[in-house]
UniProtKB/TrEMBL annotation:
The active site is at E235. It comes from the Bacteria. GO terms for molecular function: endo-1,4-beta-xylanase activity; polysaccharide binding. Its EC number is 3.2.1.8. It catalyses: Endohydrolysis of (1->4)-beta-D-xylosidic linkages in xylans. It is an enzyme of class 3 (hydrolase). Keywords: Carbohydrate metabolism, Glycosidase, Hydrolase, Polysaccharide degradation, Signal, Xylan degradation. This is Beta-xylanase. GO terms for biological process: xylan catabolic process. Residues 1-301 form the GH10 domain. The chain holds residues 36 to 337 of 449 of the full protein.
Length: 302
């Protein structure tokens, strides 16, 4: 195969990228997007602040630009994200208690209903666990509405769009021995045992020298899959360059391919210049749109 999407399809998987609506007029960007990827995630346009800037006033125009582009090109869409402590609209940041809980559930319901039938998988809840060794939930206004806010969000999403896979998505959950990984694992295990609707776990996979691809990555993905959920690499980028960067991208790709329920990989941007990172070269295409060594390593590993 000569593209990432075609190579991934050989094993029934997808290869996706984050897309920014304001880059859909950039012909180099769109050329690579259309050629290489068969799954799309809106980088910001479907988040809470973008879709509900004022309470109960929903705007989907930028999300729609991305969803329509993807679907017109025969690509699928990962929805990102229905409930998150970050990128909340100002009005939501100022709510608490029952009014916040109800506003969150209304948001999940309205957004998932609007996009019903067009989303392969939703990141229903993003980044709800704390970093470090506690294994605790992250403190946030949503968490302070009660520990059951996550399952409430998943139940609302299922009711709104029964056809979408429902994912929990987080970062720093790649190393099996880390407390945060174990804590998410126990939540998913608990949800499965109690019938809370959850279908998948997303691993953001933002790696750098201080947080490298762990050698037990395959173990982590397999152990989650063994709970009866799909797993996906959802926001992959790896700081570095040249062959060392390429090797790490290859390792992530091989880890996914070794797990039958790892259904696909998404990179968080197309060219290095599209990355959310302030500096560095963490993606598969250079700033001119040329394929990097990391691209070839991924293509060959798929
Ligand atoms: C980032 C976007 O790439 C940036 O453009 C934005 O300013 C901040 O958010 N984890 C996530 C993504 O789940 O939504 C974040 O995206 C990166 C970290």
């Amino acid at each position: 195969a000569s593209t990432l999407a075609a190579a991934a399809q050989q094993s029934g998987r997808y290869f996706g990228t984050a897309v920014a609506a304001n880059k859909l007029g950039d012909s180099t960007y769109v050329g690579i997007l259309n050629r290489e990827f068969d799954m799309v995630t809106a980088e910001n346009e479907m988040k809470m602040d973008a879709t509900e800037p004022n309470q109960n006033q929903f705007t989907f125009s930028n999300g729609d630009r991305i969803v329509n582009h993807a679907r017109n090109q025969g690509k699928r869409v990962r929805g990102h994200a229905l409930a998150w402590h970050s990128q909340q609209p100002g009005w939501m940041q100022n709510l608490s208690g029952t009014s916040l809980r109800n506003a969150m559930l209304n948001h999940v319901t309205q957004v998932a209903t609007y996009y019903k039938g067009k989303i392969y998988a939703w990141d229903v809840v993003n980044e709800a666990f704390a970093d470090g060794t506690s294994g605790a939930r992250r403190d946030s206004n949503l968490q302070r509405t009660g520990n059951d806010w996550i399952e409430a969000a998943f139940r609302a999403a299922r009711a709104a769009d029964p056809g979408a896979k429902l994912c929990y998505n987080d970062y720093n959950t790649d190393n099996w021995s880390h407390a945060k990984t174990q804590a998410v694992y126990r939540m998913v295990q608990d949800f499965k045992s109690r019938g809370v609707p959850i279908d998948c776990v997303g691993f953001q996979a933002h790696f750098n020298s201080g947080n490298p691809v762990p050698s037990n990555y395959h173990t982590t993905l397999q152990n989650f899959a063994n709970l009866g959920v799909d797993v996906q690499v959802t926001e992959l980028d790896i700081e570095g360059s040249g062959s060392s960067q390429a090797q790490q991208f290859q390792g992530v790709t091989q880890a996914c391919l070794a797990v039958s329920r790892c259904t696909g990989i998404t990179v968080w941007g197309i060219r290095d210049s599209d990355s959310w990172r302030a500096s560095g070269t963490p993606l598969l295409f250079d700033s001119y749109g040329n394929k990097k060594a990391a691209y070839t390593a991924v293509l060959n590993a798929l």
